[in-house]
Amino acid sequence: MRRAAAGGTLAVAVLLAGCAAGEVEVPAPAPQGRAADLCRTLVDQAPDTLFGQERVAVRPDSEFVAAWGSPTIALRCGVPRPEGLRADSELTVVNEIAWLPQPADRPNLYTAVGREAYVEMSIPPSYTPPAEALVAVGDLIAREVPALPAGEL
Asked: Mind listing the UniProt keywords for this protein, alphabetically (predicted)?
């Protein structure tokens, strides 16, 4: 799926207020078609722990979202194409998965690009280095979400 985000960069706002104990609020993406199928499998296969943090329930319940710990690390699969993604964007490549870091100067949001579904990781600055999460999720992306043809983002 390749759609432009309307109205700016989508940032994951993780909210704890009003949620049941151990539950976090993460906006759910709405992928369609093949991207939705790929994302269901990806999220289902996501690890039980990340940075030593246990996986937590998300609200609204979504088969396209996974979250861990507090502060919350969030994975959203099937997000729209990042608005700032261009052919000359500076990408971070971890284990052959290209990630668009945002904001560029102090990233805490990384979107895997060049795949049949965009996968977004929100990693709070307290988890360092972020590559630990990008490796774990990137290996899963490499296995479950096919690459786009060479040169496509």
From this structure: Signal
